[in-house]
């Protein structure tokens, strides 16, 4: 009889305990679906005078906060916001948030966001600052922690925004040098408190892993570009006899010479490439060579010269596009993209175009879905055609990297990030490895950024 009375009581207690546990889990777990922070109040505080916003829930050491505030306060065109980790959960949120901050602040500016202790995102309002901001990011990423990295980057970004050369130290004056020293000292103190030697070794491993990953990415993209160079050489060889048989006029010889020169330049640039960004010079030469070759082919076949159009979006090896075609990436919006005649017809008939396939993590996928290291590859082919990239790449992985050209930050959800900065504002973007934040390696919409590897602060 006692057992019958006790069992229901125990069952009830177990149910209550279970609900209490679940309630505690839900209360303590991060708000995975929480909305991104409202950029309006943040923009207002950034404009209040010190160009700095700090969310107190971040929990960074006061010395770190002071160092970043001091660095931002010394700038004239750079704004720094420090948010809790995971505030911007994906590239779409980050792209929208940074663009809104840019627009609300107005003028020529660079918005920099620290998304937790490891992720640094940025977006400029001027497209022409792209290359210099990439250099600034590389310098800043050598700092031992996010405090020093963010402080260095905002100073260098301000140099870029004001037309000053980027200094080796990352400072633009004696005051900046002092602020940088404070950031480094804070970083050293935190490292010592956190475990010193162990944390240092961890940081070194992270950097070693990053360098190894970048080397692997460069090798993969160089292989892709080498195939494009080889393809152009084969097409030149195929036309050689036809060109020799042409006797009327000399215009074909000029085009032929331009094609040969571009081919040789592409080979030279490919040999000299040391990082993914160098490969844009190769694909720029390939685009020029393919157009010149298309002109030669037209003269051989007694056809009108082709219009100077961007290469076929689906496969740049197809040469200059013939016309635009309405196309949408999987799950994306329909937009106009330049396509060769064959691919345009395939799309219009409901078939898959012959896209340029590359290998990523052992899988074949279109180059525009291959991740951040292919940003320079695409830029070399299409960057010379004005705003063609703005709508062309929206909704693709490169589209989320390249900001104003439809890129927003390097690569999304693919496991090897090119840790560089990206810029946009109607123009060029960079991106990076957001390793600690669960986004995969990418550089999200209209911005650049990366993982600083070592201790958070």
From TrEMBL:
Signal peptide residue numbers: 1-34
Membrane-traversing stretches: 182-203
Keywords, comma-separated and alphabetical: Membrane, Signal, Transmembrane, Transmembrane helix
Record protein name field: TPM domain-containing protein
